[in-house]
Amino acid sequence: MRRIAAFAVVALAALLAAAVAVGASGDPKRAITKADQASAKAMLLTRGDLGGGWTVSATSGGRGDDVDFRCPGYQPDESDLTLTGDATSPDFELATAGTISFGSSSASLYATAPQAKASWARVVKPGLVRCFVRLLEDEVGAQQQAQGTPLALEITASGRVAFPAVASRTSAYRISGVVTQGQLTIPMHLDIVLLGSGRANGGFIAVSLFKPFARVAEVRLARITAARMTKAQR
Fold it and tell me: Which of 63, 125, 143, 218 is the most buried (most CB within 10 A)?
């Protein structure tokens, strides 16, 4: 039962992850090139970056493409921008005696550096985390209805958090809450780390049950991502 409750929420959070880097309504035009697609893939985190014990999740597979990532008051329009590279990693999973964690990363390249900067300005703002909270709550409600079993999520805190400026554009958010399924009550923490440099925007999501994902580990992964962004654009 504990495993079911934990997996349900981290899977729902991972479901939304791919939507963060691209935006919401008014998606950018796509003119994907072979070179930029390869560069976008080269920026992604790998299982090896995460360390021992991590595996590719059995539920991994582009589910974020089906999420309508928009909310009242948060509908950034990127229809005047053009993507030339766009990649998402698999979902990675770590299950130990003390916690269950998921992680995934994404990266996009725009036609020009000013376009990437414009995308960042429109997408990375307070409405993003508020929309993420709302959609996560909606998905939990839908999951409860589909399963026919009690499943609830109470958000206890959400917002931007302090994070080292490892790239020219850096922003990080944490959403914390409590998952309840039957008699079980499980703490949940969802971290979003977004990075941008030159023509590139991207980042990663880390979801953990019971205790937060270690900040020192997130900073290390952010530095790896930032370095790959720089290298991929040389």
Answer: 218
Closest among 121, 95, 129 to 205, alpha carbons compared? 129
pLDDT over 90, % of the chain: 45
Q: Are 209 and 179 in contact (CB under 8 A)?
A: yes
Distances in whole angstroms, Cα of residue 127 to Cα of each of 67, 159, 176, 188: 17, 10, 17, 21
Whole-number Å distance between alpha carbons of 74 and 61: 26
Q: Give me the pLDDT at residue 58, please.
A: 63
For residue 222, which of 188, 189, 192 has the smallest C-alpha distance?
Answer: 192
Model pTM above 0.70: yes
Q: Are strands 100-110 and 55-56 parallel, antiparallel or unpaired?
A: unpaired
Q: What is the identity of the amino acid at 194?
A: L
Residue 28 DSSP code: P
Q: Dump pLDDT digits (tens) for 133-182.
A: 887 887 777 766 766 667 788 899 999 999 999 999 999 999 999 888 77
Judge whether 79 and 133 are in contact, CB under 8 Å: no
| CB 126, CB 82: distance < 8 Å | no
Alpha carbons 207 and 56: distance in angstroms, whole number: 14
Secondary structure element (H or E) that encloses residue 156, with its range: strand 152-160
Element (H, E) at 216: helix 215-232
According to DSSP, residue 84 is labeled E
Maximum Cα–Cα distance for the chain, whole Å?
A: 54
